Amino acid sequence: MTRAIKAELLKFFTTRMWWGMAIGVFILGAGFAALTAFLGANGPPTPGQQAPTLADPALVRSVYTAGLSVGYLLTLAIGVMTIGAEYRHKTVTSTFLTEPKRVKVMGAKIISLLGIGALYGAISLLGSVSVGATIIAIKGYSPFPDSSIWRTLALSLLVLGLWALIGLGAGILIPNQVAALLITIGAAFIVEPIVAVIFSFQSWGEGIAPYFPSRASSAITAGVTQGDSKDLVWWAGALVLAAYAAIMSGIGSWLTVRRDIS
User: Fold this and answer.
1) Considering the chain, what is the average pLDDT of its residues?
2) How buried is 243 (Cβ within 10 angstroms: 0-12 exposed, 13-18 middle, 19+ buried)?
3) CA atoms within 13 A on the CB side of 144
4) What are phi and psi of 99, to 5 degrees?
5) Phi and psi (nearest 5°) for 140?
């Protein structure tokens, strides 16, 4: 298994795509953090309350995780391309000839994708925390007002890794790489959030909406600790997103093991 994992990592890191993605993730993390830090604390106050400030841990968390809403789309795309590129360039045949045990190959892909997703999460947080913490400190606030910030940062790595596994499953279910990228990114960025919002405004769907992947991801990074009618607690959100990743990667791996490759 170790050799198979090394082979999967070698396939990824010997291309120019990985550092191009890394630069994009860093810039997105830094840019969204700067925007949120500059503008987030100047939002309108709710009735009877003062406007939020950067002394609020929830607002600080939103600064550091602002770029993840776009970052998970990149790791989703990486998951799709991990298997989609093999189908597109016909290298999947040689992969299975080199390692006939397809279960081992798919296990290696899953483990390597978790690591790759976590790596991009670290790069995103490096950009967002370095820029966001600097702006917060300049404004006279503590960059880490409580310990929940560190938990959110750690869970952010998990979120991006799980989205990569969702992409892996989608890439197997839709063998055409271009179609898989367009469909999965369109569904994750446009369709799924809109459907979740529609459900949240319906009495019959209000309890279902928090279980959508985007809402589960938001609950994780927001560090929700008390359940309510709108959001899951952070650990429940993590379990829900992990379930989506397990189902998608599990179905995809099962199909790959049984599918005729030619």
Assistant:
1) 82
2) middle
3) 9
4) -130, 95
5) 95, 20
Asked if residues 212 and 194 have their Cβ atoms less than 8 Å apart, the reply is: no
pLDDT of 44 higher than 50? no
Contacts of 23-26 with CB under 8 Å at 24 or more apart are 24/74, 25/67, 25/71, 25/74, 25/120, 25/123, 25/124, 25/127, 26/123, 26/124, 26/126, 26/127
Q: Tell me the average pLDDT across 154-166.
A: 87
Query: b vs e for 183-214, b when ≥16 Cβ sit within 10 Å of the residue's Cβ?
Result: bbbeebbeeebebbeebbeeeeeeeebbbbbb
pLDDT digit string (tens) for 197-223?
A: 888 888 878 788 889 998 888 888 876
> Quick one: tokens of 2?
């170790």
Task: State the residue for tokens 């093991």.
Answer: 257
| pTM of the predicted structure, to 2 decimals | 0.81
Q: Which residues contact 164 (CB under 8 A, 6 or more apart)?
A: 75, 76, 78, 79, 82, 113, 114, 116, 117
- Of 34 and 91, the structure prediction assigns the larger pLDDT to 34
Poorest-pLDDT segment among 21-35, 50-64, 121-135: 50-64
Residue with token string 């890394």? 22
